[in-house]
Design goal:
By secondary structure, this protein is an all-alpha fold. It has two domains: 233 residues; 122 residues, no CATH class. Helices cover 66% and strands 0% of the residues. The chain is built from 14 helices and no strands. The radius of gyration is 24 Å and the shape is elongated. The N terminus is likely disordered.
Length: 394
């Protein structure tokens, strides 16, 4: 009981310690504000939603508040006396969570659509926070012990920064992919190796921090880091999405199903994709645009499900969604009218409404914002490709 009575004041003290540091509360808001403004400037040049940069966006905040802030907090706690790692860990995780929540609120206010996978995103952010907080606490404890350990802390921080160009070896690369898959992809299952590596490295860093000032904790961490990097290397996740604003035209022949524009899968989806596609199918049943009373508009809304992910290169989901859309079109539209509806949409891309693109996060897919021209091209292209498949079917 006495220990519990001392625990909560200690937690409250550590949680509010950063707020008493001059300039830190302002920096906690200034950094995400500047980053978001930069992303909005990029969006003005390339019309892509902020969600396409969510992996980088949240990773930068978690790295700054978790690793850098955790190192400063741990070093200060070591100077005050023997720190309680559990108290410091919990307080830092709370602070990282508050910073990420504030960053998300700010990004939503500047146009980022709702999160399509809240549970997956929460898991990705927790693993990211644990990894960076663990590394920060280890660096801070190394720096606060002896001059030799301080050099070890500098080397560890340098190693972390040097590996940022190698996504398979870098925790920043892991967190970017894991968070991005949760926000615009199929969820964390597609990047399960990165999620496990983040959590594993965080636990390993905390264990090494507990062993300081012994000589071998840093070697233990590096060995574990390399093992986890090999694990991610052997089980890579899908590539990060990017805005693909290539103009397309139906005047020429249709692009091949294996190309970059409007791909259609020829192989069966794996377990992660099957789960993601089943989730999209379940949500379509509750999605009002899929039941629009106008058959042409209903078909156009369903084609958005394939067009928007293709516009943002959300591999590997984008090549399997057209088959899902094809099945939904056959189920929700009369078979004798479907060819004529697809032909009308392919021939008249400027007709109808594309407002349903803003509600795609309800299906677990990224929303589309900005100019509609490229999106309508993709809708028309998929209508033509699915029409060709209809005519080629026996």
């Amino acid at each position: 009981m006495p220990n519990q009575q001392r625990l909560w004041p200690a937690l409250a003290h550590e949680i509010t310690a950063d707020a008493r540091q001059p300039g830190l509360p302002l920096a906690a808001w200034l950094v995400p504000l500047l980053l978001t403004a930069a992303l909005r400037g990029l969006e003005a040049e390339v019309p892509a939603p902020l969600s396409l940069a969510a992996g980088t966006f949240y990773t930068v905040m978690a790295l700054g508040v978790g690793m850098v802030g955790g190192a400063v907090q741990m070093a200060a706690a070591c100077q005050r006396g023997a720190p309680r790692l559990a108290v410091l860990l919990f307080s830092r995780l709370v602070l990282v969570g508050m910073a990420l929540l504030a960053t998300h609120v700010l990004a939503r206010g500047l146009g980022m659509p709702p999160l399509p996978h809240p549970v997956s995103t929460t898991l990705a952010l927790l693993a990211t926070a644990l990894c960076y907080v663990g590394l920060g606490m280890l660096i801070g404890r190394l720096a606060a012990t002896t001059s030799r350990a301080a050099w070890s802390a500098v080397l560890l921080a340098g190693l972390f920064l040097a590996l940022q160009a190698l996504p398979a070896l870098s925790p920043a690369g892991w967190s970017r992919l894991v968070i991005q898959m949760a926000v615009t992809g199929t969820g964390t299952r597609a990047a399960a190796s990165g999620l496990a590596a983040l959590a594993g490295l965080g636990v390993l860093a905390l264990f090494a921090a507990r062993l300081v000032p012994r000589r071998w904790p840093l070697a233990l961490l590096v060995a574990g880091w390399l093992a986890l990097a090999n694990f991610v290397w052997q089980r890579p996740g899908p590539p990060l999405p990017q805005a693909d604003m290539l103009p397309v035209s139906l005047a020429a022949s249709l692009p091949p199903d294996t190309g970059r524009v409007a791909p259609i899968a020829a192989t069966a989806p794996d377990a992660a994709l099957t789960s993601a596609l089943a989730r999209v199918t379940r949500q379509i049943a509750k999605w009002p645009p899929a039941a629009d009373p106008d058959p042409v508009q209903r078909a156009r809304n369903l084609l958005l499900i394939a067009a928007v992910p293709d516009l943002y290169d959300t591999d590997p989901l984008q090549s399997h969604l057209p088959l899902l859309v094809e099945a939904e079109l056959k189920q929700r539209l009369p078979a004798d009218q479907l060819p004529a509806l697809l032909a009308a949409i392919a021939a008249q891309p400027g007709q109808g409404s594309a407002a349903a693109r803003e509600s795609l996060p309800r299906l677990g897919l990224p929303a589309n914002t900005g100019d509609e021209a490229r999106l309508r091209e993709r809708i028309s292209l998929y209508a033509a490709k699915l029409l060709a498949r209809q005519r080629a079917a026996p």
